[in-house]
Design goal:
Elements: H1 3-16, H2 18-53, E1 60-65, H3 73-80, E2 85-94, E3 97-101, E4 104-107, E5 115-119, H4 124-127, E6 133-136, E7 144-147, H5 149-152, E8 167-173, E9 179-190, E10 204-208, H6 209-216, E11 223-228, H7 234-245, E12 249-253, H8 254-297, H9 299-307, H10 312-349, H11 380-406, H12 410-415
Parallel strand pairs: 5-10, 7-9
Antiparallel strand pairs: 1-11, 1-12, 2-5, 2-11, 3-4, 3-8, 6-9, 7-10, 8-9
Helix pairs in contact: 1-10, 2-8, 2-10, 2-11, 8-10, 8-11, 10-11
Length: 417
Amino acid sequence: MKPVDIVRLAWSALKDRRLRSTLTILGIVIGPALITALNASTAGLSDSITSRLQTLGADSILVQRVGDFSFDEKVVRKIETIEGVKEVYPFLLIASGEVRSRGKSFAMDPTGTYTVLAIDMKNLGKLFPNIKLVEGYALGGLSSAVVGYSVWNPTDPDLPSIDVGTLVTVKANNPNGENTAKTYSVTGKLDKYGQALFVNPDNQIFISLEAGLQLTNRRSYSGAFVKIVDVSYSDQVVTMIQDLLGADVRVFSVSAITATVQQIVGTINLFISSVAMMSVIVAFLGIMTTMFTAVTERVREIGLVKALGFKTRDVLLSFLTEALIIGFLGGVIGVIVGAISSFGLTTLFSAPSGPTRPGSFPTGFGGGSQSIAIVPRITPELILTGIFLALIVGALAGLIPAYRAAKLEPIEALRRE
């Protein structure tokens, strides 16, 4: 028989048992759908998190002071001497105190409102690549400030809207227990940037490093951002900083965190694949049961066609083609269902994440809720994997029943009731 005739015969046989064929196909759909939906979702999640982590660049390292350690210029100079270090940007985080502007006062809160970050203003663009001013200038004077997007455009009606020229008074809690208040004039407003790895600039009031030291009446920084000459130096520099400063600091690198995230996602994918394989086994048994039932029901038909001249090979290919069609349809439908479902799953993943406190994990010094924009990664390889897996399951499940049907002797088959 010609291949097209075998396909036509197999399709006709499936249509004659439409309900059973449909239920069998639906049983196969689960496996490819799970594989496509979950793998596309986790891959999209991994891409989103990795992209977010890379906002500061893989060549970035965060060094945070622990306790009362004096993180001063001497420490900065020591870090600068480490092989592989390109630049060191000290910073001072002021997360405890009060802010007054336009007649409103509110407490600084890394998880609710915003905080003050003192840095060398000329390094703002290096710390946050592609950050833009929508109005004004980023001046580094002792009495000037630059505000992030969420500061000048707050969603909370209780917070004041701040413009260029607005006066902002910051009262900080000093180490000696006294409160020092300084007033700053807003000279610039930053465009929306989004959550970076170590800092969320949208929720920051930026002042110069010297202004921050004066405000807090101290000469010690909160830590430093370290830029390395190449990503290959990352682990080496982290180790050397830890050896140099010991337990007085905590060191985080973008590349290490990215590798950890990818490892976690890989573990999740392995678990997901294991779950999906269980559904594949169920589908395998479902197809085999359906094909054995079909052979049992069509014994006389098999005997008749073989008596009329059908070869053993033709009968074998006919039943095997039925199983392949079931597998193919189940795979295609499963991939489509999985692709659609992946967008629903990523919507759940994209729900606003909880607030992040400094020190708990270096994903932001201030911030409130953040949402992660996730797009499922549906690749041709993933689509083909789902369909190919269903075809393999169909072929293997249909092989034994097809072989048994092909080996039936015409006379014996025609004798059966």
